[in-house]
Amino acid sequence: SLPHFDPLPDALTLPVLLKMRDDVSTDEILPAGAKALPYRSNLQKIADFSFERIDPSYVDHARAIGQPPGHAVIAGENYGQGSSREHAAAAPRYLGLRMVIAKSFARIHRQNLINYGILPLVFINEGDYDRLAVGDTLRVEDLRKTLANSDRILLRSANAAIEAHHDLTPDQVKVILAGGVVNFRRSNMNEEREGAVLTPAI
Description:
By secondary structure, this protein is of the alpha/beta class. The protein has one domain: Aconitase, domain 4 (Alpha-Beta Barrel), CATH 3.20.19. 33% of the residues lie in helices and 19% in strands. A seven-stranded mixed sheet has the order 5-1-2-3-4-7-6. Helix 4 packs across helix 5 (107-115) and helix 7 (170-178) packs across helix 8 (181-198). The longest helix is centred in the C-terminal third of the chain and has 18 residues, at 181-198.
């Protein structure tokens, strides 16, 4: 079973743990070979393989930071291309990944990020990619209200103010706010039960 993932808070302060090139594949995010395969039903264990081909120290750094607050990663074009395995979103989320800022996303992986409550943002100015580095801390305020009312998010670091945008549908915004699709569905079920209790018999 999946662990409990917290809803999206109204403010985030996230250290940047990775800065990646273009065309990072889901196999690079989480290996698909014999090493990780035996643990695919154990999210806690399979998370240990997250990003190991890109930065073997990522898991230790992510666990040290914990969640909250969680962390962010930066990517280039076509982030998450390749096979569509959900674990490539679930495992980093388990380790506290709350936000990916990229030049663009592979479509299926982007949806998997949303399903696990990870906010996918795209640089409005691609040149801002060069203004961010591993070790920067990104801050965003009034996030829940902004997501619901605007497609633009202002991210602040010590040295820069970065504008990013999302193209989330209203339902996808609700999923992100809830902390993932499981939380979203559970909340809807609870509301339906409460409505059934409150509705008088005719």
